[in-house]
Amino acid sequence: MDALVEQLARNLAQRTSRRRLLGLLGKALLGGMALPLLPVARVRSAAAAQEPGDPMTCDYWRYCGFDGNLCSCCGGGITDCPPGSVMSPTGWVGTCKHPVDGKDYIIAYRDCCGKELCGRCACHGDKGDIPIYRTQLDNEVLWCFGVKSGWAVNCTTAVNLGAKM
Amino acid sequence: MLNCLRPRTLLLALLFLVGAAAAFAQVPTSPSTQFPYTGPPTEGVSVLKMPAPGRHWAFIMAPLYGNFLVSQIYVIDGDSAKILGMMTGGLLSTAAVSPDRSRIYVADTFFSRGTRGARTDVVTIYDTKTLAPTGEVVIPPRRLLAAPDNLQLKATSDGRLLLVANMTPATSVTVIDTAGDKVVGEIPTPGCPEFQLVGARRFVSLCGDGAMLSVGFDDAGKVRSEKRSKPFFDPEKDPVYAYPAIIGTENYYVTYHGMVHPMDVASDPPVAGASWSLVSDQEKAQGWRPGGAQPFWGHSASGLIYILMHQGGEWTHKQPGAEVWVFRAKDHRRVQRLTLPEAASSIYVSSDKQPLIFAATPTDVLQFGAKPFTLQVLAADGRYLGKIDQLGGFPAAIFGL
User: Fold this and answer.
1) Of A111, A138, A143, A151, which is the active-site residue?
2) Residue among B106, B103, B101, B127 nearest B49 (CA)
3) Which of A50, A64, A85, B26 could form a disulfide with A81 if both were Cys (CB 3.0 to 4.6 A apart)?
C-alpha cells in the first residue's frame, strides 16, 4: 500500500508543479463549499432584497408553518441561533408563499437547542403541519435530533431552501 | 484600674452566662418559636393515600411551560371534580396504567445539567395506591420527544410487557419485560412512528404513505410477523389525526376536513371500511371542522364518537372547539350537539356505561405567564357538572381507566 501511494505521489509530482497542485486543491475546496450552497444562496439573496414584513412578528411570510419562539426576538435572527445555543442539523419544513413574487418557497424550521425556551414571540403557523407519521412536516416534534447538547429548544429559525418545484 | 476590675467583670460575665443558659432552657416549646419543629403533631397529620381506582378517573398529561423539561401528570376524580394527586415527570413525559391498575408507568427523559448534559431515559414506576415512585427501568435514550398522546407508552393486555415509542428520527419500539423490569428488545418500525396495541402481542402504527403497519411480536421483544395495509388516506390532501377514535376493534381516523376513515384493526393487516363525513355540505361551507390537541374520543360501550368542533379555515386543525358533536359510528348519524362553557382542545370520555365527558381548555405554553388551563366535567347528556381550574401546563392528552 505504501509503495502504491508513493508511486502515485511521485507521478503526480512529476506532472504538476507544487503551485499548480495547491491551486487545484484550493479550487476543489472552494467549489465543494460553494456548490451545495448555491441554490439556497441565490434564492436568499434574491428574496432578501425585497422581503417585506417584520421578522419579529408572527405574520412574517416565512413563519407560515412555524411553531415556537422566533429567534429574531431572542438574540438570534431569521436564520441565526442566539449565542451559545446549538443549531440542530435537522428540522421540519413548510411551504410559504412569498408576498412579492407570489411563488411558494420551502422553509426549513431549525431549532436552536441547549437552553430553555426564550419565551418571547411565540408563533403558531401550522400551515402544512401534518401529524407525526409525516415526521418531517410535524411541528409538534422536538427537532433537536443529532444535537449532542440537551433537547431544550431556545428558539426556532426559518431558513429559505428555495422555490418549490 | 482595669486590673482591679477584672475579677469582678469575670464574675459578672459568668453570672450572665449562667442566667442566659437558664433563660434559654426556659424558652417556651410552642411550635412558633422552636426551630426546627420536631415535636409530635398536636392534631392528625399525614400524607394521604389514594382511594381505590375508579371508572371516572382521568389522567392528564400536561407538559409545563417552555421546553416541557418538567411534565405534570394530574390524576383527577370526575365525580368530585377534584385533583386526587399528581406525578412529576421529566421532558415531555407520557403515562400509562398497568392492566391490573397496581402501577402507573411514566416514560421520562432527563438531562444531567437541566437543559444540557448527558441524556437519561427511564420508565418510572409509581404505586397507584400512593402515587409515590417505587422503581425505574433505564431504557435506551431514544424515546420519542413530541407532544404526548396515547400512542407512546402502553402495557400489553396481560401486563407482561411494556412498550415505549422511539424516534431518532428513525422509529422503533422498546420492549420492557415487567416481570424483571428489564429491557428485552427493540422493534424497528421504519417510517411508522408510535404504536397502538390491538392484540395480546400485536400493535399497529400509522405510516407516512397513509398505510398501516401491523407487527406481531413475542415475549423477547422479537418481531414474529409484519404486514402492511393498503394506504387508506391521502396525507397530502386531507391528513388524519394520528390518534383515532377507538370503538371496540374499529379505529375511526378523522381528517382535518372532517372525513372519517374506519379501519378494522382485528384484521391482520387492518382493513379499511367505507369513509363518511362528519359535516354536511352546508356545514362544510360554514367552515365546521374538528380541532384541538386530542379533538375526539370513541366510547365503545355506546358506539359513540365525541368530537370537538369549531368554525375555521384551512390549517386550523389545532384550534379549540366550544361544541361537541356526538356521532353514532355504525350509522354515521349525529345524535347530539353539546355546547361547552369554554372552548376545549382535548376531550376524553370515561369508558363506563354512565360516562363523564372531560374537556380541557388550551393554553399557550410557549409564552411566559401562560395562563392555567381548566378541566370541565359534563354528564353524557351534556349537563355541566363542574370544573377544576388553575391547572398548569398544556393538556396535550387525557386518558382514563
Assistant:
1) A111
2) B127
3) A85
Domain that holds residue B356: 239-401
Closest Cα to residue A95, out of A124, A128, A73? A128
Kindly tell me the sign of the dihedral angle through the C-alpha atoms of A91, A96, A98, A99.
negative
Residue B115 to residue A115, Cβ atoms within 8 A: yes
Any A CB within 8 A of B389 CB: no
Which ranges of B56-181 does DSSP label H, i.e. alpha helix? none
B211 contacts chain A (CB < 8 A) = no
Q: Are residues A8 and A44 in the same domain?
A: yes
CA atoms lying within 13 Å on the CB side of residue B47 = 5
- Triad B79, B328, B155: Cα angle to 5°: 60
Read off the pLDDT of residues A5-47 as tens digits, 9 standing for 90 and up. 444 444 444 444 444 434 434 343 333 333 333 334 444 444 4
Domain co-membership, B206 together with B273? no
Contact A133 B316 (CB under 8 A): no
User: Quick check: A151 and B119 CB within 8 A?
Assistant: yes
Q: Look-up: residue for cell 370513541?
A: B298
The domain total for chain B is: 2
- Summarised one tens digit per residue, pLDDT across range B97-151 is 999 999 999 999 999 999 889 999 999 999 999 999 999 999 999 999 999 999 9
Looking at the structure, do residues B155 and B191 belong to the same domain, yes or no?
yes
pTM for this model (two decimals): 0.85
